[in-house]
Design a protein that fits this description.
The protein is α/β, with parallel strands linked by helices. The protein has one domain: HUPs (Rossmann fold), CATH 3.40.50.620. Helices cover 50% and strands 12% of the residues. The protein is built from 8 helices and 5 strands; from the N terminus they run αβαβαβααβαβαα. A 5-stranded parallel sheet has the order 3-2-1-4-5, with helices on both faces. Strand 1, helix 2 and strand 2 form a beta-alpha-beta unit. Helix 2 packs parallel to helix 3. It is globular, with a radius of gyration of 16 Å.
Length: 184
């Protein structure tokens, strides 16, 4: 009896920042991987915003039959990391450290839970430098001895596709990256 493609696919733990960004990325990854979403975003403030984004990714994953695992909401850990970077411009050192924090935690979670590969939705945003995000992922992978799936998901009109999908599905779309400093 032949096996389905699903059994042949390697598993990937996908760090998800929100439901809208996850839509197109998950569609792409499902072509080659069995995807498990991982929501770890201590940067998102205030907590009510965090909960809106969590509900959106829960809604999307539930509708698509994708497993969603949730990391702890460690806003104090994020604030401690960013304390000396509050005046940094969006896209600067604060963002770089934020990517490192979230992707290192994702790599740790991947290793501790039997995933050999992890990825992130962060590169779908036109406001994020894919090179900086990918470097953070590669550094975390090397440190924690797991594989990072390097990508630039905004290519091929990925961001526009994610916007269209999230609108069609009625997912909550935020108006800022996540931290209060990015809110403006």
């Amino acid at each position: 009896m032949p096996h389905s493609d699903q059994h042949k696919k390697q598993s990937v733990l996908l760090h998800t920042c929100c439901g809208p960004c996850a839509t197109h990325v998950i569609e792409l990854l499902l072509q080659d991987y069995h995807v498990t979403a991982y929501f770890y975003n201590p940067n998102i403030q205030p907590e009510e915003e965090y909960l809106k984004r969590l509900r959106a990714i829960e809604q999307y994953c539930s509708a698509q039959g994708i497993a969603l695992l949730k990391g702890p909401y460690e806003s104090k850990k994020w604030m401690d990391m960013a304390v000396d970077l509050q005046d940094e411009p969006e896209g600067g050192k604060r963002c770089e450290r934020c990517f490192c924090l979230r992707l290192e935690e994702t790599a740790r979670f991947a290793r501790e839970n039997g995933f050999t590969v992890f990825a992130t939705t962060l590169t779908i945003s036109p406001h994020k430098d894919a090179g900086v995000v990918n470097n953070a992922g590669k550094d975390a992978a090397k440190k924690l001895k797991v594989q990072f799936l390097e990508a630039d998901f905004k290519k091929g009109d990925g961001y526009r596709k994610s916007c269209e999908l999230s609108r069609r599905l009625g997912l909550y779309r935020q108006s800022y990256c996540g931290c209060l400093y990015s809110k403006g």
